[in-house]
Amino acid sequence: MLAQDVFEPASTLALLERERATYVSCWTQASQAMADHPDFAKRDLSSVRGGTMLQALPPERRPSETDLTPNLLGMTETGGPHTMVEVPDTPLPTERRGSFGIPLPGVVQHRIVDAGGVEVAPGQHGEIQVRGQILMNGIYKQERHEVFSPDGWYSTGDRGWFDDAGHLHFAGRASALIKTAGSNVSPAEVESVLDAMPGVLHSFVVGLPHPVRGQVVAAAIVPSHGADLSTEAVIAHAKRNLSSFKVPTLVAVIAEDELPMLPTGKVDRQGLVRLLADGLTRISDAPDRLLS
């Protein structure tokens, strides 16, 4: 296993080449930073055969579309991933588009429950619950009955659904749902549509406070290297692929280094709310735009 104390694109590329790394695991932002670095084309990364840095994979292992990338679902409470893909490091078949694999056999169980805690049928959305050997014993200073159901299920706070073949699909954090004019909007659903637009590297969707609607849908778009994106084009794409109440009211096209980040390498969603709210304040004198 290779590791660095501090990520720096050039030195990481040199490390991967020198040590003949076979698998690269990193955040998407780090992958893109290495792919955009001038040294990327100069380094021999032919040893890489798997991982999250798609740009370094052999052509036959690269997914043709973003949502055909193999992915796992996990959390601290399960000590890491609690799902697995059946054929690792190869693009998903189209019928498994956007899925996160199956429960680890013999190790963990999943179920999807409605708001009342009743298990729902495959295809129906709800909260993901887990139990099994990899689940934590408890949470510090909380009683067991406050954390687990009587039969050992833990509510993850994640929403999702199972397809007919038992593959789990993630629909976002339950607490992250945007409530706009009485309707619920899943940021993950909107992001999947925006990420599929040509020229979009990443999209991040959050809810911004609004005096009439409660919240409005806002999106920060990071364009692919060299792409020229307009907010009008992004909104038009969203309107073609989403219900009207899910279309972002506010869209900001920003550079990747403008994203507020947490020390873990993830995007700081609350920082993004503050960043986009500033844009909302600047157009608050245009209520027709806000309520369109």
Q: Which key phrases capture this entry?
A:
Luciferase, domain 3, single chain, three-stranded mixed β-sheet, four-stranded antiparallel β-sheet, 7 helices, 3 domains, 292 residues, GMP Synthetase, Chain A, domain 3, alpha+beta, globular, disordered C terminus
What's the structural blueprint in terms of helices and strands?
Layout: H1 9-18, E1 23-24, H2 28-36, E2 50-51, E3 74-75, E4 80-81, E5 83-84, E6 102-103, E7 108-113, E8 126-132, H3 144-147, E9 154-162, E10 168-173, E11 178-180, E12 183-185, H4 187-195, E13 200-210, E14 214-223, H5 231-241, E15 250-253, H6 269-282, H7 287-290
Parallel strand pairs: 1-2, 14-15
Antiparallel strand pairs: 3-4, 5-6, 7-8, 8-9, 9-10, 11-12, 13-14
Quick summary:
The chain is of the alpha+beta class and 292 residues long. The chain is 21% helix and 24% strand.
Percent in helix: 10-25%
Number of strands: 15
Unreliable residue runs: 283-292
Q: State the end-to-end distance.
A: 52 Å
State the secondary-structure class: alpha+beta
| CATH first level of the largest domain | Alpha Beta
Strand order of the largest sheet: 7-8-9-10
Q: Can you tell me the CATH topology of the largest domain? A: GMP Synthetase, Chain A, domain 3
Number of helices: 7
Q: Quick one: biggest sheet? A: 4 strands, antiparallel
Question: Looking at this structure, what is the CATH superfamily of the largest domain?
Answer: ANL, C-terminal domain
Strand content: 15-25%
Overall mean confidence score, pLDDT: 87
Described by the principal axes of the CA atoms, the overall outline is globular
Order of helices and strands: HEHEEEEEEEHEEEEHEEHEHH
CATH architecture of the largest domain: 2-Layer Sandwich
Domains (count):
3
Rounded radius of gyration (Å): 21 Å
